[in-house]
């Protein structure tokens, strides 16, 4: 069956199953057929300054990071807008990957621009400037060929736009939502509507506190789960991620200790890309839900993709990333987080 | 053999093997014979304010937290000093546990006092006042009966005092060092001498950056390991702990998500108590070193004891803690951190 697949790779790629490049060492991964991942979010040009370096007008935006990460696993259907100044090379790159650009609008005007500076502790940053450009009048239009995507990532954009997307995607099997402080503060009622309609929410600890007014993260997460969410993922930057499930699941995914963090921008979006990318390669349970073991494994993949993205500015590291690299880091995370599951204090030693 | 042990419990307690109270549900743990744990550090009266509550002149100090935590596992030999105002009830409590007080000096004068206030994010605090009291002229004298302790915790005191202890304990099998920003800034050469002579160092990320002048934790840890340490543990507060070994080991111990953090004071000392307490119950390898699997398991025990201490002010939660409680939390940490160790991207699904 593997031979058959390898032999028919080119044909199969036309049918919606993709051949991932550069994985000769570990054979080819056959993806679950016709499972594509839809993302709606920003494509931007970022100017980012860290204590050690600076990059100007590099490819950025949540949807860019997500698409590049998730396309390592499966086909991504991208919905976003860019201006007439958007560099052609970025489109060429996505065309070299299983990223469907049918939903990428091109409009007269300026591409969204974002400027930020990181603190010495790279878990904190200040946004210095935001130029919405063509996003000012953006409305998400989901092409008909995208509507069968069972997996949906609502990247960090206005809650009103996220609601528009949900209206057009009533059949999605798993919907994941990201947001930020700005919407918690200025668009709370709309954001609440979105939270009540999705399956999983990604938030930082600070965002949980802001939204729930709970000082305890555990209490805040419980409040969020009571809104109907199946899962809440707490993004902890360099500390990894926590998964809380409405079924009582708690999972603490280990962080990967990076020698050098070049730029953490996009780590949360790459996390979502690794998470949904992985889930797109496994079968859900008969009822259509993913098993909790697969959800946990997805969180680990999210951490892995999130760690890689920090190793370079923009999507630099994701461009060259292969599934081989993911496998190596996965094994490292297994080794660094598993410990004796059978310890009990009944130990008889040094018998006289 | 268990019956024999239970039957002879009282006698054995006289010989240095201790019967742990309150563990009927899980049988009794037989400790490794004659393995005691020595701690040198502060015993204090703490006044602590959190955003939600305040406690005055409660039992505090690194050695207090450590002794109470580690004595759940095995006998602790305590070296510290208290003033003539030290409440008798605290001594009575330790007498009810396997805490040897032969090395606890009582001097005319005031017990060490520490006052601090926590921020809304309880991972940060400000020290408001420190009154050294009888610690001003303290010198550590190790009673002869303590000198065979193979496990040694140098809690956070002046590096010069820590050196005095090391001089008196040349046979220790595993020495663990804690310190703080004050000594990094004011006693750097002495602190360096201590680091070069111990096996394991506990530090926060900020302390690693301060001491090594490296912005990368991984690079900072490597610099520390190059000083001759076997292990560096990075204390991450509510995010758990990271273990780095000179042998290349990396281990990320999961954090336990507390519903409510009452007071994080002493979490690092209770961590050390759980770590060395656990190691005191297992046999080292033939060469005298502990296996890396036992070191990892010790870090998990450290996290467990550190999490319990946050559930109340002072040593409140540790007073009533039983090994049953530890077992339950251990299992929770296994469940929340282990994931499919066998994932590979070779998955053949949806065969045609």
Structure description:
The structure is a homodimer of 352-residue chains. Chain A has 13 helices and 13 strands. Chain A has 352 residues and is an alpha/beta fold. In chain A, the strands form two sheets. In chain A, strands 5-4-1-8-9-10-11-12-13 form a nine-stranded mixed beta sheet, sandwiched between helices. In chain A, strands 3-2-6-7 form a four-stranded mixed beta sheet. In chain A, helix 3 packs parallel to helix 10, helix 8 packs across helix 9 and helix 10 packs antiparallel against helix 11. Chain A starts with a helix and ends in a 15-residue tail after the last helix.
Which structural class do you get from the secondary structure elements of chain A?
A: alpha/beta
Rg over C-alpha atoms of chain A, rounded to the nearest angstrom: 20 Å
**Oligomeric state as shown:** homodimer
Sheet having the most strands of chain A? 9 strands, mixed
Strand content of chain A: 15-25%
Number of strands of chain A: 13
Weakly predicted, low-confidence segments of chain A: 1-30, 347-352
- Write down the secondary-structure element order of chain A: HHEEEHEHEEEEHEHHEHHEEEHHHH
Strand order of the largest sheet of chain A: 5-4-1-8-9-10-11-12-13
Q: Fraction of residues of chain A in helices?
A: 25-40%
Q: Given the C-alpha coordinates, what overall shape of chain A results?
A: globular
Notable traits:
homodimer, alpha/beta, nine-stranded mixed sheet
How do the helices and strands line up, and which of them pair or pack?
The structure is a homodimer of 352-residue chains.
Chain A: H1 2-7, H2 9-15, E1 37-40, E2 44-49, E3 54-60, H3 62-70, E4 76-83, H4 88-95, E5 99-107, E6 112-118, E7 125-131, E8 151-154, H5 159-168, E9 174-178, H6 181-186, H7 188-197, E10 200-204, H8 205-212, H9 217-225, E11 231-235, E12 241-245, E13 250-253, H10 267-279, H11 292-309, H12 316-320, H13 323-337
Parallel strand pairs in A: 1-4, 1-8, 2-6, 4-5, 8-9, 9-10, 10-11
Antiparallel strand pairs in A: 2-3, 6-7, 11-12, 12-13
